[in-house]
Structure formats: structure tokens, C-alpha cells
Amino acid sequence: MANHKSAVKKDKQDIVRRDRNRQHRSKMRTQIKRFRQLLEAGDAAGARGMLLETLSLVDRTARHGVIHANAASRTKSRLTKAVARLEASA
């Protein structure tokens, strides 16, 4: 337990930030899972339509500092390549 007033405030801020980060991360992961379900189903048109929305959400999560910018770029690249592979095979 914190003994100083500033440490108590920092603990409260950490709790709020952790909850907020958890919400952003969860939302992003859920969106990516839905996107991958479309890929597995072979729905190229649906995946292409959802791609921009998913990439935007990944960017927003990185902008909020929840994930590193390089991790966001890597994720976006992999998702885009997956759509390209699906469209090439279809």
C-alpha cells in the first residue's frame, strides 16, 4: 500500500489506464478474430471490406500507446498479405 499522497494517486491512475488499455486491446483482438474468421471462410469481398476498419482500429490502438508502433505495422502487414493471398487464390 502506498504511503505518500502522490503514490496513492499514481496507483489510481495506473488502475484507470490499465482498464482503458485492456478495453482497447480487447476491442482490437476481437476485430482481428472476426476478420480472420472471414478469411478462413474464404469470403474475399467481406474480408476486403473489413480490412480498412481493422487496420484503422490497429492504428488507433497504437496511437493510444497500448501496442508498439512496430507491432501495429507488423499486424497490419500480415492482415493485408492474408487478404492478398485469399484474393489471389480465388
Automatic annotation (TrEMBL):
Any Gene Ontology CC annotation: small ribosomal subunit
Biased composition (Basic and acidic residues): 8-18
Superkingdom, taxonomy of origin: Bacteria
Region described as Disordered: 1-29
The name this protein goes by in its record: Small ribosomal subunit protein bS20
Its job: Binds directly to 16S ribosomal RNA.
GO molecular function: small ribosomal subunit rRNA binding; structural constituent of ribosome
Keyword entries, A-Z: Ribonucleoprotein, Ribosomal protein, RNA-binding, rRNA-binding
GO annotation, biological process: translation
Compositional bias annotation for Basic residues: 19-29
Residue ranges crossing the lipid bilayer per the database entry: none
Keyword Ribosomal protein: yes
HAMAP family the UniProt entry points to: Ribosomal_bS20 (MF_00500)
InterPro entries in the cross-refs: Ribosomal_bS20, Ribosomal_bS20_sf
A Pfam family reported for this protein in Swiss-Prot or TrEMBL: Ribosomal_S20p
